[in-house]
Every structure is written in structure tokens, then in C-alpha cells.
Amino acid sequence: MKNESEFYRREEATRVRVLSEALPYIQQFAGRSIVIKYGGAAMKDSNLKDKVIRDVVFLACVGLRPVVVHGGGPEINSWLTKLGIEPQFKNGLRVTDAATMDVVEMVLVGRVNKEIVALINQAGGAAVGLCGTDGNLIKARPQSKNEDVGFVGEVASVDIKLLESLMDSGYIPVVSSVAADETGQAYNINADTVAGEIAAALGAEKLMLLTDTVGILRDYQDPATLIPKLDIQEARSLITEGVVAGGMIPKVNCCVRSLAQGVRAAHIIDGRVPHALLLETFTDEGIGSMIVASEFYAT
After folding, report:
1. Active-site residue, 40 included
2. 45, 50, 73, 134: which is the annotated catalytic residue?
3. Is 73 annotated as catalytic?
4. pLDDT of 169-180, one tens digit each?
5. Domain-wise residue ranges, the chain
6. CA-based Rg of the chain, rounded to a whole angstrom?
């Protein structure tokens, strides 16, 4: 009994220590917007999903203003296959003809989005599901690359009035990466890009990309080479040098673009780590890579 009692005392001491360490960050970020791109393993693993949802609700409860942006590639592929449509990709982009676009809308807006909203509500939060067409939140345009990929789009503009109204009323907006152009044509847009542009439009404190990697590595085969903090210039240099390569390039570019438009910090973190959002936001060491604009580098 004595050993068990000592164990619980140590556990309680650890909780108190963690809360004490978190307090300055809670005070610093209270009232500020944080945009979370939710994807990867954190969406597929039920245990991780529960922890991410609880993290989002916690952020809202301690005074931050979270916005969740999500994709849903694996579920889109699953439904395309069920409907007899073969998923196709070209240079990393989903080939999105009219039939595929219908499935993308059905899955992202009608299924994935509402599942996330329901989970947040069940965890004690108050979430509202949106896509880019709601309140003219996002205006889309065809992607500018000369690629024959159908209805793949880019963000032309973001109108944050609806988001601000919801957050002012205590709601957590959950945004799917589907938007329409001026004619009403729907487009499938990369969720990282949507998250970055929304963060920039809000002047967010943080943009946080949940990924299936530990962050930016100097040696992609060695997690011990994680770069915990860098600025825009360093991030661009790592791309030029080939240290940042492959699928990490668009993520880093997304972060750089958001920082150039006024976002305070951008984070690439491992969504496979339980409570990754809280570890990165409220602890001194964090767990991923934080990119900052040069003028904020010392803070």
C-alpha cells in the first residue's frame, strides 16, 4: 500500500508540474486563434482521434480560439472504390473529374466533417461544420499548374467574417477543404493549403499541421536530427539544399507562405504522438518543428 500511495503522489506531482509549466503559455495565447490541420494517422486511429479531439476542446476551454481544417484522402479512396471509380493521381494531385468531385464533396462535407463535429460535441465542445462555400468563406480558382487533373483548386480568397462570428460565440469551426469559384463550380483543394490561407486571413497565433512525421529532419532517416526551431530563411535554404524534399516541401512552403502573411508561428508535428497539440503548445520543449518569421525568431 505504501508503494502504491507513493506512486499516486508522484503521478499527482507530475500533473501539477505540467499544469504549472502550461500556465504561462495559456496566459500568453488566451484569446488568440490557432488553426489546426487535422489529418494522417491522427484521423485513422481511434485512440489518437480521441486524444486530438480532447486536445482541441481543451484549447477552447482555456481561452484559445481553435479552427480545425481537415482533408480525408483515405476515406475518399475507399468510397471511390465502393462506387467503382478508380482513384487516380498525377504528380501528387488527385485527378478529380465530375464524378470524383461528387464523391469528394459527399465524403469531406457530408461524412468526415460531421463526424469530427459530433466527436467535438461529445467531448464537451461546441463545434460547427463548414465547407468553403458556407458564408463565402473560401473562393476557389482552378489550380495554376499546367496539369490535367480536373476540378483541383487553389484558394483565391478567404472571408473570415463567419469564422470570427462563430468563435466570438464560443463555437469551434470545423472546415472541410472544398470550395467553389465565382460560377459555383466546386473544387477539391489541398487541406494544408486551406489551413495556411485561413490562418493567414485570421492573423493566427499558430498554424499547426498534424502529420505522420516527427517534423523537419536534417537526415530524413534519423528522427534524432529533428530541427525544433527555424526561421523562414532557414526553411527556404533547407528546400534549396534538398534537406527538405518530397511531400515535406509543400508543407514547409505552406508554413512559409502563412508566416509571410502574418501568422506568428507554424508547426509541423507528429500526430501519431498522443496529445501532440498540447505538448507542442504548452510545454517548453515541444515535440515538432516550429517555423517562425525572422523578426520573431528570438521570442
Report:
1. yes
2. 73
3. yes
4. 999 999 999 999
5. 33-296
6. 20
